[in-house]
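User: I've been trying to design a sequence by hand for this structure and keep getting stuck. Would you show me what you'd pick, starting by listing the structure so we're on the same page?

Assistant: Good idea, let's start from the same input. This is the structure you sent:
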């Protein structure tokens, strides 16, 4: 492509050129360029996927390059590229995992969006009895405690929650055009093109004319906050209704989706071509003294990994980089960059997204080396795999809000062939409500286990909270009750929370 005498001054044309680039069809019409790990060696596919622009008197390129340098961005012709291949660490045992059958994902031929066109708030006849109407719990006490210091209301202790319903007379004064458009916008934002929304049905639902009346929510709020003294009080309750409707819409849609997709999960085996296996890290390194030093260090690690020397790989380190080599993980090393680290390189993909993930895997490494850990696990073999976080690659669940747990953890009894697969997600939960769908996965996974009818496979799910229990703001239950929901806490240290995890896993 040639651009003649273009971009000599600032203008929308050149901004669009650099901002939008060229839309590619891509492999399998993915509309994306291939990643370094997907390219066959020797074909130079990246050259084919590169747009070259030749222009006459096109001095804007030099101007653009100077602008990049002024902003601290290294131009591409001063970048070193390094493809770092990982090493698979697969066991002889065929590890079982789950996947949605081909053809049943989202927009595929038999996907939920292609097959079902449900009306909001109405369960299709074929799914009647298979799903429960969602129940939304909204606790407004934490928010009110933090912002309301002047309003005179009752003196109810904060640990005693007043449960209330919105008055139908007040609801009838709501701006339903606003509510309808807000839910419509939320639907479009989430990409739920198959969900039908009718304004009159929405009004009837809010006014309790549906068969579930107003039993679909529990609202915890001081009675004084529901008093109507001025018009703004109606608007405040309208905002509360919008929050309830948004949560209900999300839970309703995902309940239908899960009921449909739950019929089509199948057991499969993990292999070296599994999408969760990172085969290659791609580094772009500045051609500077620091950049060359990191290049040298990474090449040394690459050589160690190629030789299969796990011991040496464990001892490798570089400032600002995270490198975890765990002999129980299905590939190594797990590489990432420390948060806020100022390094002369960029990498993709990264193995970790949050510090809690690193803490968990290091706790696990230490725990299995202790006498307590070895006694807890017994004669079972342990394996771990970092789960991919996208629907195209990872194991996720619609019922939990398209939740993709960070790790897949297996215990295997090599004598009987029994396998225990647990989905584990280390995360911060400070602002989450216990009614959040993610906290229900531990139940949903057991329902899925029954449908699979494989007595040699047991499923479980855990959330490992990096948030301390005392810092939770939307939880009024004691800690032991929270742990009954398979929510454990990093603050307890690995020797405690991991022992609880393994005992629950094989129970």
């Amino acid at each position: 492509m040639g651009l003649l005498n273009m971009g000599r001054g600032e203008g929308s044309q050149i901004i669009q050129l650099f901002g939008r680039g060229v839309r590619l069809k891509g492999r399998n019409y993915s509309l994306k360029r291939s990643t370094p790990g997907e390219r066959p060696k020797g074909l130079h596919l990246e050259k084919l996927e590169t747009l070259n622009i030749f222009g006459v008197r096109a001095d804007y390129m030099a101007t653009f390059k100077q602008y990049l340098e002024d902003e601290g961005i290294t131009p591409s012709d001063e970048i070193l590229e390094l493809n770092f291949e990982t090493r698979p660490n697969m066991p002889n045992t065929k590890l079982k995992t789950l996947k949605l059958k081909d053809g049943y994902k989202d927009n595929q031929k038999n996907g939920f969006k292609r097959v079902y066109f449900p009306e909001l708030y109405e369960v299709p006849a074929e799914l009647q009895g298979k799903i429960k109407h969602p129940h939304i719990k909204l606790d407004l006490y934490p928010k009110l405690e933090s912002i309301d210091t002047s309003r005179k209301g009752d003196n109810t202790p904060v640990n005693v929650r007043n449960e209330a319903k919105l008055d139908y007379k007040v609801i009838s004064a709501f701006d339903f055009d606003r509510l309808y458009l807000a839910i419509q916008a939320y639907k479009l934002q989430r990409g739920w093109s198959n969900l039908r929304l009718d304004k009159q049905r929405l009004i009837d639902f809010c006014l309790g004319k549906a068969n579930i009346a107003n039993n679909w929510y529990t609202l915890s709020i001081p009675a004084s906050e529901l008093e109507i003294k001025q018009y703004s009080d109606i608007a405040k309750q309208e905002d509360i209704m919008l929050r309830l409707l948004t949560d209900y819409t999300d839970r309703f849609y995902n309940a239908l989706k899960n009921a449909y997709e739950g019929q089509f999960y199948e057991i499969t085996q993990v292999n070296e071509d599994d999408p969760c296996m990172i085969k290659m890290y791609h580094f772009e390194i500045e051609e500077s003294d620091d950049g060359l030093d990191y290049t040298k260090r990474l090449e040394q690690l690459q050589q160690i990994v190629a030789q299969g020397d796990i011991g040496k790989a464990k001892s490798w380190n570089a400032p600002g980089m995270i490198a975890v080599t765990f002999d129980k993980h299905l590939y190594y090393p797990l590489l990432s960059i420390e948060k806020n680290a100022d390094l002369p390189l960029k990498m993709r993909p990264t193995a970790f997204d949050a510090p809690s993930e690193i803490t968990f895997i290091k706790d696990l490494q230490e725990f299995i080396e202790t006498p307590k850990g070895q006694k807890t696990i017994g004669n079972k073999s342990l394996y771990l795999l970092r789960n991919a976080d996208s629907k195209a690659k990872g194991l996720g669940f619609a019922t939990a809000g398209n939740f993709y747990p960070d790790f897949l953890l297996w215990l295997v009894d090599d004598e009987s062939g029994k396998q225990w697969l647990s989905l584990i997600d280390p995360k911060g939960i400070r602002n989450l409500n216990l009614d959040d769908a993610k906290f229900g996965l531990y139940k949903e996974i057991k329902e899925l286990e029954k449908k699979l009818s494989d007595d040699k496979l047991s499923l479980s799910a855990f959330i490992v909270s990096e948030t301390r229990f005392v810092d939770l703001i939307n939880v009024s239950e004691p800690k032991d009750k929270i742990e009954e929901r398979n929510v454990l806490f990093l603050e307890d240290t690995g020797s405690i929370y991991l022992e609880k995890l393994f005992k629950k896993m094989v129970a």
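That's my pick for every position. To get oriented when you compare it with your attempt: Residues 353-506 form one domain. The longest helix spans residues 231-261.
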